[in-house]
Specification:
The complex is a heterodimer.
Chain A: H1 3-12, H2 16-45, H3 47-53, H4 56-81, H5 89-108, H6 117-142, H7 147-165, E1 171-172, H8 182-187, H9 200-218, H10 220-230, H11 232-237, H12 242-268, E2 270-271, H13 279-289, H14 301-320, H15 325-353
Antiparallel strand pairs in A: 1-2
Chain B: E1 2-3, H1 5-19, E2 24-29, H2 36-49, E3 55-60, H3 68-81, E4 87-89, H4 93-105, E5 113-117, H5 121-128, E6 134-137, H6 140-155, E7 166-167, E8 170-172, H7 180-186, H8 191-194
Parallel strand pairs in B: 1-7, 2-3, 2-4, 4-5, 5-6
Antiparallel strand pairs in B: 6-8
The chains are: A mainly alpha, B alpha/beta.
Amino acid sequence: MNAGDSHGSRLLGTSAARIDWLTLAGPYIGLVLVMGLFSLLLGFYDQRRLANFLSLDNLQLVTVHASVIAAVAVGMTLVMISGGIDLSVGYVVSLVTVVTVLLYRWADGHPWLYVAPSAIAIAGGVATGCVCGLTNSLVITQLRIVPFVATLGMMGVARGLAQWWSYGQPVAFPDAVHPPAWVPWLRAIEPDPPWLLLSPAVWSVLILALLAAIVLRYQVLGRHCYAIGFNETTARYCGINVNATKCIVYTLAGFATGWAGILQTARTGSGVYNIRAGLELEVIAAVVIGGGSLTGGQGTVLGTLVGALILGILENGCSKLEWRSEVRFIIIGIIIVGVAALNSWRQRRGRLAA
Amino acid sequence: VATDNCAGGSKAAERLAELLPGRARAIMIRYQTGSESTEQREAGFVKEMKRHPRIELRIAEDEAGATVATAQEAAERMLSNHADVEAIFAPNESSTQGVLQALRAKKLNGKMKLVGFDGSDILIAAMKSGDIQGLVLQDPFDMGYRAVLRAIDALEGKMPADPVHHTNLRVATPNNVDEPAVRAMYAPDLKSYLSP
């Protein structure tokens, strides 16, 4: 039983529809559980820490920390729904930080360009993400290589380029202490102006997520995504241009990764070739916790955002409890497997019920 | 041929104690469990801080991790839990840059004292602008140089009295950061040696 079947089941009003609803609600139940559990533990540990955990300040901190993962995860949701995967995102984000700062430096040294160096840097950074995504899709569709291997290759290329162009050193803005104004504005944990409540970086991710959700739910492209992920051969027989759809999906995901790179540049205030090495696994974890599946055809943008938020709260809560980082790694590992096991169990039950 | 990491940690503690007159609170961020050099620095730091009981030392269990990004996030969580500390020690370059960025993101740079380890361009610039008050500098140039001398000695069958050679350590501060002797440690004049 999977999403495609249960859409049919929902129309027929069978019990499988209820199972599907449970799958969709899973991430939110998880969010409430994680919040409740940490509140309880912190309540025993220290009342002041509990108040700190539930404060607006801490919500700002958690959301800022989740923002880069969430931005990439929005793109990864599209890719994973269409049955693919992108292992290159960690080093592509890192490459984007390097390219953005280097472009800024270059444009800053050429005043005759008549374009603000920041505009060139940000556009170039995002374009780098898009180009990496497009290249991934061309390798996958034209050379007929599975996404796992194709994007593994891109991971190496992105790392090599970033390390080469930065000489393996952090690259700073021309004035390392006073970077362009958008950098401190985007990196701040408390937003400026304060009535925004959440950091501009967080709002930008929410807007990105909203656009992706609209595409998935209301655009033909979104339906094609689910169709390809559910069964590629069937999708092809139905007249869907699978290759074109994949190219668009990976390029859009590249755009999200590029934007995440801009956010990371602002956070770090410099470009570092390995700044987000390993990000791909955190992102995949967020998508899976949010109801996505490595086999495709499943997942929602909102679920993914909740998945990223759950990871952020786990990090934050463990820190508030003064637990060692090792404990956190174990907990996150167990939760990922737990969620996957729950999904698998629901699907088996769903099949029996249907 | 290596840095005496333990001594480096205690130099950092001396500098931190010097920055904090009277009763104060300080916190150390750990780099990563299993990293030998930084664990020695941390141990040296904690040991030296014991000689300054007027300063309450806390240790964050939430480690900095491998990159500047993880260090920055850990430092921001640490600052949210320990908003009352007056100074921070970070045991290597990436964690120092992470803490620096966390202080900037929280607009605490310059207000909260930061003592770090190693001197990248970014850290030195931050020291000159008043965001970092102390950096323990190693001498990688001398490390390479001494290693070659040792290798030649070994080829010639000469055995030194002490098999371990500890290279220089120096604490850069906003006051001495432009002195030639300090400059030579974070920006050695490589061109005069490496150009043909």
